[in-house]
Amino acid sequence: MWRVGVDVGGTFTDIAVIDDVTGRYWVGKVPTSLPDPDVGIVEGLRLALDQLALAAPDVGRLAHGTTLATNALIERRGARTALVTTQGMGDVLELRRGDKPSAYDFHFSAPVPLVPRDRCFEVAERIDRSGSVISALTEADVERVLSAVRAAGVEAAAVALVYSYLDPVHERRVVESLRRALPEVFVYMSSEVDPHPGEFERMSTTVANAYIGPVVHRYLDRLSRSVAEIGLPNLRVMQSNGGLAATDTVQSLPVSLISSGPAAAVVAAKVIAERCREPNAIMCDMGGTSFDLSVISQGTEQTLRFTAFDCYPVRTALVDTHSIGAGGGSIAWVDSGNTVRIGPESARSWPGPACYGRGGTRPTITDADLVLGHFPGDALMAGAMPLDRAAAERAVYDHVAQPLGVTLVEAAAGILRIVDAAMANAIRVKSTGRGLDPRDFALVVGGGAGPLHVGRIARELDIDRILVPPHPGAMSAFGVAVTDTRHDASAPLRVSFNDSTGPEIEETFSILAKRVLVTFQAEGIAPDDVRLEYSLDLRYTTQANALTLALPGSPEGGWIAPLLKRFGEEHEGVFGIAGDPSQVSVARAEVVGRSGSRFDPASLHPPEGDDVDRTRSQDVFFPESNEWIETAVIRRAGLKEGDQMAGPCLIPEPDSTTLILPGQQLTVLDGGTILVTETRS
């Protein structure tokens, strides 16, 4: 059987198809179709089936990564939403927390909430911090709020009552009444979306979930129908936590998709680094609209439990990624102080960079690369997509060179210096800024534009190992294809951590495990095919911050003492001190379930290389040496395991082009990955 992964980027939609038996794989690209990306997805899937001569029943799994949820939040393109909360709590979204992005920004003004105050409705009820009802919810109050929500003419509603995570009895009554009376409205309740303490965070997360709910629901419904018409299997969707889920599951929790695309690239980078025996790796993916990165330390990706959009938190499990507006389509411009700026605006897939010949006139990173000869000939995708060099030159000259009074080449080189420095600095933030030395890591590069720029980024950071996998432009699609199905369940706990509370903790784990298994069963996956992982958030009783520790196995027989000892050791490593073991308490319990055949990276089988043609060359301008150098052009398909070559050289392939700088050399590893190292002393 074959597995198919689809990733929708701002410029291209990538398709990765892998044969589970032979390890053979195929990658394809089609332009992203906006505003309806599902059209491009179906086009790409039909292309894949045709190119590989596959019938739809040959595909055993179809999975999809998307930035739809993220874009809906960032661009404020969600649904008209209402909030129902406890009396006296209607101002919580407006009040927020007291912090701000920059402590010294005295002109900071908080953004408008996703739900304005006039659509925040209150009910007279109260549950206290122990979960006891101290003010009962009346039917008359429910009817009053129901009428207000109906009159507001909303598409979605978030219900977030105080302490509902301890007892959701009132929240359920409100939600059931809304769903019964307003079946056309998407209704979500906080005790299901984010059942944890922190009134503002829980409310903000539930509101964000409702705000993007109708957008995600309609998109996945439309895409699922289109996929079914082709005869392909039920669609699975990449979640922010790095695992797949059925469409029905993510439609009930759309906020789980807010980092879907970048998470897929991290999964792929882990597989590539594992095959190349690199436990420490930094994933950097430069696509059409953004530069995404993530740190993998000792074979494990870093994870978060919340992120923020416009100062409003969203709590959900997600792979820790960092993005800046520095993709191949990011627009370069000159500000009022005659400083060159890059992004965050992007030319996207349409009209695209000026060199695409689709009517774009503003210069992008891709245009600057073309002006400096960084593409083989004047084409992308191994010659399949001709580029208009004259249009690129006009755009760079008119919008950057002429305003600054510099030459065309100086302007293009300056654009690249600025964007490369920005990407290197982004990596510093996630490595050096967290006490990690980037020199201890290999760069695993992906994205259509990433391999063109990674050599200079590595030099900026003094990193001496770069891994460029086959088909780097489709790394996220590859990650979607190889990852497991995953579901999480968690619950707050407020107990001491010792043998006497062990049974209570184990009972909580049992409840969470059953919840996870029920979700898998609803998706047609048997409990015997699910691997369960257990973890606890531990802290000292008077402490606010907690450390997450994974259990080595199931919580059975003498597991507390070893975990308590490990907590003391890790706490001392992180905070410089270990406290009294008798004062350790539990803040949270979590169970993670995974299912799917474990993908073996050694099984990948790249296409056979043919003879290398070293006779072709072209002039390339290198900003670091400020000179044009004759550079060999070598097809990626012409490289075989064990091949070595000194830079400079350009290596085109259907989805990307790799640039090896002077003073660097490449070695082709087992599986077709290119290892780039420095040759200079």
- Biggest sheet, in brief? 9 strands, mixed
Number of helices: 16
Give the total of beta strands: 35
Give the distance, in angstroms, between the N- and C-terminal Cα atoms: 49 Å
User: Structural class of the helices, strands and pairings?
Assistant: alpha+beta
Amount of beta strand = 25-35%
C-alpha Rg (nearest Å): 26 Å
The general outline is: globular
- Integer average pLDDT: 91
| Low-confidence blocks of residues | none
Roughly how much helix do the residues carry, as a percent range?
Answer: 25-40%
Q: How would you summarize the topology of this molecule?
A:
Layout: E1 2-8, E2 12-19, E3 25-31, H1 37-51, E4 59-65, H2 68-74, E5 81-86, H3 92-95, E6 120-123, E7 126-127, E8 133-135, H4 139-152, E9 156-160, H5 169-181, E10 186-189, H6 190-193, H7 199-230, E11 235-238, E12 244-246, H8 247-252, H9 260-275, E13 281-286, E14 291-297, E15 300-301, E16 303-309, E17 312-319, E18 322-324, E19 330-334, E20 340-346, H10 365-371, E21 379-380, E22 385-386, H11 389-404, H12 408-430, E23 442-446, H13 450-461, E24 466-468, H14 475-482, E25 485-496, H15 502-522, E26 530-540, E27 547-550, H16 560-575, E28 584-595, E29 617-622, E30 627-633, E31 644-646, E32 649-653, E33 656-660, E34 664-668, E35 674-678
Parallel strand pairs: 1-4, 4-11, 5-6, 5-9, 9-10, 13-23, 23-24, 30-32
Antiparallel strand pairs: 1-2, 2-3, 7-8, 11-12, 13-14, 14-15, 14-18, 16-17, 19-20, 21-22, 24-35, 25-28, 26-27, 26-28, 29-30, 31-34, 32-33, 34-35
